[in-house]
Structure formats: C-alpha cells, structure tokens
Amino acid sequence: MKSITILIADDEPEIADLIELHLEKEGYRCIKVFDGQEAITAIQSHSIDLAILDIMMPKLDGYEVTRQIREQHNLPIIFLSAKASDLDKIAGLVRGADDYVTKPFNPMELVARVNAQIRRFTQFNHAAQSNKVVLELGGLTIHPEERTVSLYGKPVELTPKEFDILYLLASYPKKVYSSENIFEQVWGETYYEGSNTVMVHIRTLRKKLGEDTHKNKLIKTVWGVGYTFNG
C-alpha cells in the first residue's frame, strides 16, 4: 500500500512538531517546512497527498502557496490559522482550502479532519477510475479519471472539493441535493446546523463556471430545498 505523505507548513516549529507527532502515530509520512517558499519547493520535489498550511508564513503566505499548488496539483489542503472569525474561514475556503482549523487546536481533531479528507479524496479517485464515465452536459465536460473540467473547450481549474460537488450534481441531473446531502457525501462527515461550507463552495464553483455571465445557470438553487444540476 502506498505511503501517504503530508506536508506541514508552519513557521512555528513546535506546532509543526506536534502535528507531525500525531500524524506519524496514524501511519502518515510527514514533511515539515517553515515558510511558504519551502512549501512550494516541497510540493515540486515530493509526491504530496495532503497539505496543512499556516496562513501567515514568511516569504509566501498560505493563500499564495495554495494558488500556486492549484495551478498544477490536485490535492486536499487544510488551512491552520489563528484567524478565527467566520469571515476568515469563508475567505480561506474561497481561496481554495478544503478545510479550515483554528489555533489553538486539538491535535486529535486535526488528525480526524486529515483522515476524512484523505478518505474522501481516495474514494472519489477510486470511483472515477472504476467508472471512467465522461460527462458532457450543456457545454460542460467532466473527465472523472483525470479529474479535469472544461467549459466549451476551455479548462476550468477547480479545487478537489469543488470538483467533487460538481461531479456529484452532474452525475444526476435534475436531482435536488440539500446542503446536508452534499456535505455528507463530499466531506464524509455529519452535517451540523449553521454550516455554510457548502454554500461557500457552490458560490466559488459558480464563479469559476462563469455563471455570473450566463443566463441559464448550470447549478440551480431550489429555494428552501437545495441545489440541482441544470445542464
């Protein structure tokens, strides 16, 4: 079985050491770096399966590191930050993170979130490789094996969670999914009241699909119920 490698990028060595200690107990291989530029170098030099990024790092912050990762790699990203307001969390998700953990944090909770991200990412990749059904709907083409998306022939760069949401909705056009349905199927966790995670990802997904300029929306909101694919 392939060893799973996790990148830990935090400018506080004691925090990076603590995370490494708990993740290695779970059987993960860890690579630690202490600034944003080192994080980019590690991504380019190693096969990374998941990245845990502090937002406020020297040289390059977590947002810029995420932007550069998303240009070439498809892997889950968890932000770890002292920025704890709802607006900070939303900003982190909009910038491309798949999850957001605030400092101070419970190491076991972080491990559980890492496990959930790895599990969901692995399951979706396995399903894609097993099914290999290319979806072509309303000018949108989704290649599940390569996890790529194009709209009218133009590539659309999506985060892993955005891809998973789009693939879920597009696989069953016209079926309405509640936020709870989407969260539990894509994140693999129990939905909790008040969570706006799905709404934030749907918003950024629509923006990347250019839905602010299209009259006919690919992702339709069914008010009071949820979302459906309208392709």
Question: What does this protein structure show overall?
Answer:
Helix 1 crosses helix 5, helix 2 runs parallel beside helix 3 (62-72) and helix 6 crosses helix 8 (197-208). It is built from eight helices and eleven strands. The chain has two domains: 5-123, Rossmann fold (3-Layer(aba) Sandwich); 132-229, Arc Repressor Mutant, subunit A (Orthogonal Bundle). The protein has helices at 13-25, 36-45, 62-72, 86-94, 107-131, 160-171, 179-186, 197-208; strands at 5-9, 29-33, 50-54, 77-81, 99-102, 135-137, 140-143, 148-151, 154-156, 219-222, 226-229. The protein is of the alpha/beta class. The protein has a five-stranded parallel β-sheet, sandwiched between helices. It has a four-stranded antiparallel β-sheet with strand order 6-7-8-9, covered by helices on one side. Strands 10-11 form a two-stranded antiparallel ribbon. Keywords: DNA-binding, Phosphoprotein, Transcription, Transcription regulation, Two-component regulatory system. Residues 5-118 form the Response regulatory domain.
